[in-house]
Amino acid sequence: MTRTTNPMDALPCPCGRTQGKGGQPLPYARCCGRYHSGAAPAPDAESLMRSRYSAYVLGLSGYLQDTWHASTRPAELALEPGVKWLGLEVRRHHQADAHHAEVEFVARSRLAGRGQRLHERSRFVREDGRWLYVDGDLL
């Protein structure tokens, strides 16, 4: 059986995660790509948040829906056309207990030539061994 490769696999992951402090960017296949493909669940809330950012960059609305907690998940998710995602900065990751965590981040984008900045403190819950996005507060 031949494995089909994704042209994104060797490119730096959109989430910006690096190997070690100040190291080389992780390739998509070794970072968010494995979560997007279903090969593995995100091991912690920060990894899930990063994979969700990458899903926005790549237009993976199904993944976003699948990783959104049922209590707050929208019935439909329409991604804004024309948004160019520019980068992600994770400011803080706090795991309150084995099943609850928060991640504060800033995501930068551009739409119709105008820069945008999303600064959010997101809440995550772990159910059945999977981290899920619940909601967040804009900062």
Describe this structure in words.
This protein is α+β, with helices and mostly antiparallel strands. It is globular and about 35 Å long. The model has no long low-confidence stretch (mean pLDDT 93).
Model regions low in confidence, pLDDT < 50 over at least 5 residues:
none
The domain count comes to 1
CATH class category label? Alpha Beta
Q: What does the overall shape look like? A: globular
Counting H and I runs of at least 4 residues, what is the number of helices? Answer: 3
SSE order in H/E notation? HHHEEEE
**How much strand?**
35-45%
Specify the helix fraction band: 10-25%
SSE blueprint:
Layout: H1 32-36, H2 45-58, H3 61-66, E1 84-97, E2 100-111, E3 114-127, E4 130-138
Antiparallel strand pairs: 1-2, 2-3, 3-4
Question: What descriptive keywords fit this protein?
Answer:
139 residues, alpha+beta, Nuclear Transport Factor 2, Chain: A, four-stranded antiparallel sheet, 35% strand
Q: How do you describe this structure in short?
A:
Helix content is 18%, strand content 35%. With 139 residues, the chain is of the alpha+beta class.
